[in-house]
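Please, structure for the following, as tokens.
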Amino acid sequence: MDGEIGVTSTVGVGSVFWFELDAASVPQLAQDMQVPFTSPSPPESPDTRVHTLLYVEDNKANMALVVQLVARRPDLRLMGAGDAMRGIAMARAHQPDVIVMDINLPGISGMQALAILQESPATRHIPVLALSANAMPRDIERGLAAGFFRYLTKPIRVNEFMAALDEGLAMAQTRIQ
């Protein structure tokens, strides 16, 4: 498998464990993170509405996983952005029902992006879910205090992630009515 594993530790501060593996192939639609992508919209029937989800994530493997999860849901259309500024632009242009935001992004952070989204009348109504590797209790508290409706940590727990998406969609529906 040709990987590497390691740890750094500081007494009284904590430890960081890490590993590196060769990347597996990533589905083609998430390959180029520099260009925002959109999954095709399934045909809408009279009793179902297709909801739009915007995922702001710079890691191709994480994006590919969410692409696979959302593909299971014909009621969801996925758009992706590889950095916060593109995500903000896409949110303004496309008005997604829910935004899933990584915290550690190139340029500005997910926390800064959330603040910008909350300041704009065009986007402040959109529920934003944090999905981050920052998993310390203070990170979660800070994220919830900033205004994320939920703060999930990586690795993604599928059932929790899908339940949070449903919660966000319900919030979006309530705000529309």
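The domain at 26-176 is CATH 3.40.50.2300 (Rossmann fold). The helical segments are 60-71, 84-94, 110-119, 137-146, 158-176.
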